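dude i think i finally got it to work??
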Amino acid sequence: MAFESLTDDKIADLLNCTKRLTNPQARRKSKDGHEQINYHASSTDGSQHEFEIYRRQNLREGMEDDFSCGISWIAPNGETLTIKRYNGPNHNHPNHLEGEHLGFKCHIHTATEKYLKANRKAEGYAVATDRYITIEGALDCLVADCNAIGISTSPDHLS
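look at this
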């Protein structure tokens, strides 16, 4: 399936189906100043969808707010497409098609049919959020929002 043919409804189905981690003991790997963990997950509804969930943190001094957690769909042909991504506030994210910038805030990207059809990054559109401030909080939001089970997370305690 060409990614350009994905609709918002199909993307929502991929995000909403329950996913179980198949490698909950995945190990952290450090490379080029980043630490990353990659999990694999499979849908539990019989649809046989496969996903990768990742957690990436910049380890350089002063870059604690440079982090990202995301979920990618692994298409039957093996290609991957990021369908949701949770970023830290380290950059002023632009929503190019809307002509707006979010400011230096935590933000959540979601793949959209509009961005795919415009030949942009599928998950180029994002909204600012105050649901998390750390990578652990971002991963907790991802797990809850994307119905992933079998992974231990902890929310940020925001006042």
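The chain has a mean pLDDT of 94.
im so relieved honestly
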